[in-house]
Structure formats: C-alpha cells, structure tokens
Amino acid sequence: MQLSLELELSLLANTTFSVIDFETTGTDPQLDRITEVGVVKVRGGEILQTISCFVKQQRKIPPAITGLTGITNEMLTFAPSEESVVEAIHGVTEDSVIVGHNVSFDLGFLKAAYERVGYELKNTRIDTLALARKLLSGEVPDFKLATLSHYLRLDHQPRHRAFDDALATVDLLHVLIERAGTYGCTHIDELYRLSKIDLASVGSKLGMSTKLPHRPGVYFFKDSDGKVIYIGKSTDLKARVRSYFHSDSRHKTPKMLKQVAAIEAISFKTETEAAVAEVRLI
C-alpha cells in the first residue's frame, strides 16, 4: 500500500490513529459477523472519539464464543443494526490510520461489513502484533495481547471484550511508538516500514538516522576510522538513508552497512543543489 504524502510527512505525535477491536461469531469474515465493536480514536496520547456497542445480527453466537467472551444472543436483541454501526465506524476512522492487534483479522470483518453497506476500506493500517514481534523479541514468551499487557504493566488489560481490548491496544501502541523512537522512527511512514527491517542485524545503526531531515541533500556513510565509504543524494535524506536498512536485494548493501559507524548529511533547499553538491563531493 502506498502511503499518501500527507501521511509520509506526518509526525507520529500528530498522527491520528483509530484503534479497533471486534468480537465476532467466528473466524470467517464472509460467513460470520461482528457482534461487538470497540474503537478508540487517539492523537498525541489524547482520546478524541470512541465507539463501544453491540451489533444486532441474524447469525447466532456459538456456545464456545459465548464461553470465551460472555456475549450472548440476548445481548444483541436491542443492539443497533450492522449498517448503522458501520456508518459510525466509517465516520470515526475515515481520516485516520487504523491500528489493531493482529489487525488483519479485524480488517477482514470490517472490509466484509463495508462491502455489504457500500463503503471501501482505504485506510493505512498498523499491526501492533507485527511491531511487538520486532520490538519486543526475546523479552516475552509470546505476543498475545494479554501477555504483552501484563508484561508491560499497561493501564488497561484485555478480557475478550471489544472496547477493553481496544483500550489495551492503545496502551500497547504508545509503548511500541516509544520503543520505535530508539530506532529513529519519528514519522508514520517510518513506523509503517519498520516491519521490513531486520533489527537483529542493523537495528543498532538505525538510530543514526534520527536527526536527518526530510529534505533534499547529500548523505555520507563513514566507517569507524571516519573514512567516507559512500556518498549519495536524495530528495528526502531521512527516507533514503533508512531505505538502506529495509529488505534490500542488492548484494553490496548488507556488507556496506556492517562497515557504517556514522552517518552525516548536508541538506539543501532544492534537489538541483543536492545533485550539484554530490558531483563535487564524489
């Protein structure tokens, strides 16, 4: 998915996230239905809007699901219709990044519900499960929301109810954003692409990119002796430098990154100035 320019340039502190969690009648988005919705819209640590409600459905809740969640068919009797709930979700989340723990599960159900109502799901999405696997590897026995909430001592604990689990996921997101900051993640595009980076091998060097600007310029990779081993230019210094740490098929890149001990840059107002400077410096 291509991130919009607006999101590319958005600081994480200014990014609006809509954290979602659904309880359902089963695991198949085409056959099963959403029974309970939890949505928490946040920006800069502040809760902006919430949705917490049951959803009236014709499909019955299996006993096993009731045993897990405590939600019964009787609880849905006077709940709002799926269409009205979907309209509410769309209204709250339309201008935000959607976040969930194992978000593909929730998005599968949301996409199916959107299609029944006539909406299209276009949001950028962040999966706290994938981020936790990257940022908390080796610290926890597993990456279940309950395990992470207990280990990190989050303010909210999940209990297989949509709104409670969404609140716990909000807490987890904030912890993960803080952890990601140690790897130079300050913008939403950097958080989005973090899953493509092998932190085990290059994570310690990612922090070198933290202070690089999102501006045209020339960058220098230096070894431990201060010798320049590579010079390049870009219209976006920080994005270009960080791209070297993504999964890269070029054979020389991993070898070069092992030698990098420092990253420096000179920024310019225009791409043309950067191109001229690169030619002079090479």
List the helices and strands and how they pair.
Layout: H1 5-8, E1 16-24, E2 34-43, E3 46-54, H2 63-69, H3 82-93, E4 97-100, H4 103-117, E5 125-127, H5 128-135, H6 145-151, H7 162-181, H8 188-193, H9 199-206, E6 217-222, E7 228-234, H10 237-243, H11 252-259, E8 262-267, H12 271-281
Parallel strand pairs: 1-4, 4-5
Antiparallel strand pairs: 1-2, 2-3, 6-7, 6-8
Helix pairs in contact: 3-4, 5-7
Pattern of helices and strands? HEEEHHEHEHHHHHEEHHEH
Order of strands in the sheet with most strands: 3-2-1-4-5
Mean of all residue-level pLDDT scores? 90
Global geometry: elongated
From the 3D structure, determine the CATH topology of the largest domain.
Nucleotidyltransferase, domain 5
Helix content: 40-55%
Helical run tally: 12
Description of the structure:
This protein has 282 residues and is of the alpha/beta class. The protein has 2 domains: 5-188, Ribonuclease H-like superfamily/Ribonuclease H (Nucleotidyltransferase, domain 5, 2-Layer Sandwich); 198-281, GIY-YIG endonuclease (3-Layer(aba) Sandwich). The chain contains 12 helices and 8 strands. It has a 5-stranded mixed sheet, with helices on both faces. A 3-stranded antiparallel sheet has the order 7-6-8.
